[in-house]
Amino acid sequence: MTTTVPRPPARTSVRDRLLRLAETVTTPLLPGDYLDLVAPLRAGAALRGRVVAVDPETPDAATLTIQPGRDWRGHTPGQYVRLGVDVDGVRQWRAYSLTSAPGRPDGRISVTVKAIADGKVSNHLVRRLRPGTIVQLDQAQGDFVLPDPAPARVLFLTAGSGITPVMGMLRAGAHTRSDVVVVHSAPTGADVVFGAELRALAARGAIRLVERHTDSDGLLGVEELAGLVGDHLERETWACGPVGMLDAVEAHWEAAGAGDRLHTERFRPTVISPGEGGTVTFTRAGLTVQADGATPILEAGEAAGALMPSGCRMGICYGCVLPLRQGAVRDLRNGELTTAVPGDGVLIQTCVSAAAGTCDIDL
Amino acid sequence: MTVIQKKPDNPIAHLSAEDIEIIGKELDAIRDRVLAERGESDARYIRKVIKTQRTLEMSSRAVLLFSLFPPAWVVGTLGLSIAKILENMEIGHNILHGQYDFMRDPKIHSTTWEWDHVSPADQWKHSHNELHHTYTNVLGKDNDLGYGIMRVDEDQKWHPMHLGQPLWNLVNACFFEYGIAAYDLELGRNLRKGRHKAPEFRARARAVGRKIRRQVLKDYVIHPLLSGPSFLTTLAATFTANLVRNLWSHSVIMCGHFPQGVETFEKTSIEGETRGDWYLRQMLGSANISGSRLMHIMTGNLSFQIEHHLFPDLPSCRYQEIAPQVRALFDRYGLRYTTGPLPKQVASAWWKVIRLSLPNRGTAQPVDDLSTRALAPSGA
Q1: Which helix (H) or strand (E) holds B189?
Q2: Is residue A5 one of the residues assigned to a domain?
Q3: Interface test with A, best of B64, B130, B214 (most A CBs within 10 A)
Q4: Can you give the pLDDT at residue B299?
Q5: B374 CA to chain A: closest CA distance, Å?
Q6: Interface contact A24-B217, CB threshold 8 A
Q7: Shortest CB distance from B134 goes to which of A27, A86, A316?
Q8: Contacts with B88 from chain A: Cβ below 8 Å
Q9: Do A172 and A226 belong to one domain?
Q10: Do both A161 and A261 map to the same domain?
Q11: Are residues A164 and A72 in the same domain?
Q12: Which part of the chain is the FAD-binding FR-type domain (chain A) (predicted)?
C-alpha cells in the first residue's frame, strides 16, 4: 500500500503576490534592479557593503570599516570574508580576515589589508579606496577559529598580515578565556600591523607578546621556538603567515607528534605562473585534455568530445563564453593574459583563448 | 549596389593582398590601444547610462499613471520613448555584444542580460552577433540584407512579392521588435521548410511566446490597470512609446547597411578569408550617421556602424574616439567611408527599398540612380 501525503495547499502571501505584480511591471528586469539604485544594502539584495572608513595602520596597511548589507549573518573571530571590488573597472575578488570583533552595536565589520608588491587589489584598497564605495561581499567563512570551550593554553604564531585573523580573535576576548602567547614576525617594529594595540595588551599582562623584527634579527627558525615558548608543542597553536613559514611549522609540529594541535591558515592563493599551453579540465563534463599554446580552448574541448557552445569562431559573437574557474589563458589575437583564482569564474571567449597553464573550465 | 566582385569599378581593385594585411594590422593596433585603456571610465559610463535609463523609465511610468491629464501624457510618453530607445540601443545591444563583459560584473554581462524587447536575448545574440556580424553583407549568408522579406541588392533575385516591399518595410518599421523576433526565429524559412514541428524550433517559439506575453502584459495590461481612470490613455502612451522606439531603431539600423555606397559580397568571396579581408568587408559593408553627441547616444553609437562592425566588442563609448583614426585609414588606402546625416541616409535606404521593389532595368548593368561615380572598367 502506498500512502500519499496530501500536498500542502499552495498559499501565497500578500507579500508574494505584490512581489509578483512588481515583477510584471519591471520585466525583463527585477524589482531589485531598481531598488539597487536607492538601497543597495537592503535585505534581499545581493550581499554588499559600504566602506565607511579607510584608516592607515602602517605605511602599507590600512583597515577598512564596512557597513555590511542587511543580510550579513555575522562571523566567528578568525574567519575571513571574500570581498569584490572594482579595480580599473574590473571586478576582482579577494579574501581578507575579519579584524573586528563580532556583534558591534553599529553592525560594522572591518578587514585589514596589507599592500603587497604588484598586488593589484591590495594596493587599490590601501591607497585608492574612498569611503562611500560599495563593495561586494560573501558571507564569512573559514575554520581558522577558536573552539568552544576555549583551550587552556594558546599560541598564535604569525608573520606579516598573518596577524589579522588573530587580531580578530583577540578583539573578541580570546585572552580572557585562555592563556595566550603571540609570536609575531615583521620586518621592523613599525611594520607590525596593530603594533600599538598588541603591545598595550602585553603591557597590561593580557597576553605574552614575542615580536621578531626580521630585518635586524633574521627570519625566525622553528628550532628557536623552544627557547621562546618552552611549552609551544603543548599549546593549541594557530599559525598564519607566508607559505614557507607554514611549511616549516607543519613539519616541526608533525615531527614532534603534535600535528593535531596545529591549525594553519594559508592565505596565499594558488600561484598561477602562466606559460604556453597546459592541462585543461572541463569540470562538469569530467574531461581533461592537453592543449598547446596555439590551440583555442574551444577546439581543444571539441576534440576531446566536450559539448562546447560556439559561434563565430573569431572572437566577435561571444557565443562561446565559459567561466574559467582557475588558471590562465592567453588571447590568441594579442597575447593578453587572463588569470583566475578559485572562486573567480572569469568568463572567457574560448574560441580565441588558448591555455597558458593549467585551466579549470566550468562546463 | 551590386556585389563588389561584379562591379565594373570594383573599389578594392587597387589593393594588393599585402595592403589588405597591413590594413588588418593597423586596425588590430587601434583595437589594442583601446584595450590598453579600457577600464574604469567605460564601466562608469555604462553604469551611468543604465542608472539614467532606469530613473527615466520609472519616473515616466509614474507620470503616466496620471496620463488622463494631457501634459502628463506628453511628458510621460516622451520620457518612456527615450527610455526604451536607450534600453535597446545603447544598453541592450551593446551589453549583449559583450562590450562590457570585461567588467566581470554578473549584472552587466552578455550572458545574463535580458532586454526590453520581444526577442529573447539569447536568440537575438545568435542571429545578430553570430550570423550578421560574421557574414556581414554576404549575399545568401547575411539575412540582415532585407531580413528575408525584401530585396535590397540588385544581385538578389526579384520576385513579384517584392512589389509590396515598401509597404512591408513600413509595417516592419512600426512593429520592428516583432519583426526581429520572427527573424531571429527564422520563422518564414522554418515554416516554408515544414520545420515548425521540430522540437528545437518549438522550444524557441515558446520562449518567444513567453517573452511576448510578459512584454505585452507589462505595457498593455498592468501599467494601464495601475493607472486606474487613465487606463486608455496610458495604453495609448505605452503603445506610442513602443512605436517611436520601433521606428527609431528601424531607421538607425537601415542606415547601417542599406544606404548608397555600402558594398555587398558574393558567397564564394569569403572562402579562405583572412582577418584583413574580414576587416575590409566590414569597412565597406557598413555606413555611419553623422550628428551630435546626443544623436550618437540615442543610436547606441550605431551611428559609428563602421567602427562597431570592425570592433563589435569594444565599448560603444569608444567608437567616437577612434572614428578619426579609422577614417584616416580609409583615406590612406583610397576607400570610401560612407557617412551622412540621418535624414539623408534614411532617404537613401528607403529609396533603395522602393527602387529594388521593381526588377533590375536592363540585365548586365546594375542601376545606380543616386551614384554619381564614373564607371571605370576594371578587370578584378
Answers
A1: helix B187-192
A2: no
A3: B130
A4: 98
A5: 36
A6: yes
A7: A316
A8: none
A9: yes
A10: yes
A11: no
A12: 44-147
Say whether both A238 and A182 belong to one domain. yes
Chain Cα centroid distance, residue A362: 20
Q: Which residues span the domain enclosing A63?
A: 48-137
User: What CATH number does residue A299 fall under?
Assistant: 3.10.20.30
Of A207, A240, A265, the residue at which a domain comes to its end is: A265
The span from the CA of A58 to the CA of A31, in Å, is: 43
Kindly provide the ipTM of the predicted complex, given to two decimals: 0.88
The confidence band for B371, taking pLDDT boundaries of 50, 70 and 90, is: very low
Cβ contact A321–B97 (<8 Å): no
C-alpha cell, A137: 561581499
Task: Indicate whether A172 belongs to any domain.
Answer: yes
Which residue ranges make up each domain of chain B? 4-42+118-355
Lowest mean pLDDT among A148-152, B263-267, B295-299, B372-376: B372-376
B133/A contact by beta carbon, under 8 A: yes
Domains: count for chain A? 3
The predicted pLDDT at position B143 comes to 87
Nearest CA in chain B to A312: B130
For residue A15, count other CB atoms closer than 10 A to its CB: 8
Q: Domain check: are A159 and A251 in the same one? A: yes
Residue A187 within a domain: yes
Contact residues, chain A, for B133 at CB < 8 Å:
312, 316-317
Q: Does A357 fall in a domain? A: yes
Q: Determine contact, residues B43/B317, Cβ cutoff 8 Å.
A: no
Q: CA angle, corner A309, sides to A308 and A313, nearest 5? A: 100
Residue B149's contacts (CB-CB under 8 Å, 6 or more residues apart) are B165, B168, B172, B188
B53–chain A nearest CA distance, Å: 11
Question: So what's the pLDDT on residue B367?
Answer: 42
Rounded to two decimals, what is the model's pTM? 0.89
Over residues A264-293, the pLDDT tens digits come to 987 655 556 677 899 999 999 889 999 999
The residue among B362, B350, B342, B344 whose CA lies nearest residue B165 is B350
Distance from CA of A22 to the nearest CA of B (A): 10
- Specify the CATH number for the domain of residue A184: 3.40.50.80
Q: Mean of the pLDDT values across residues B37-66?
A: 97
A185 and A247 fall within a common domain: yes
For B332, the grid coordinates are 590612406
> Can you give the pLDDT at residue B366?
45
Which residues have a Cβ under 8 Å from the Cβ of B89 and sit 6 or more positions away? B249, B252, B298, B299, B300, B302
Burial of B363 (0-12, 13-18, 19+ CB in 10 A): exposed
By C-alpha distance, the chain A residue nearest B119 is: A28
Pick from B38, B103, B133: which is nearest to A91 by CB? B103
| Chain A positions touching chain B (beta carbons under 8 Å) | 21, 24-29, 33-34, 37, 86, 88-92, 311-312, 314-319, 321, 333-334, 336, 346-347, 349
Cell of A209: 607578546
Residues A204 and A229 in one domain: yes
Shared-domain flag, residues A115 and A187: no
pLDDT at res. A2: 45
Residue of chain A minimizing CA distance to B278: A314
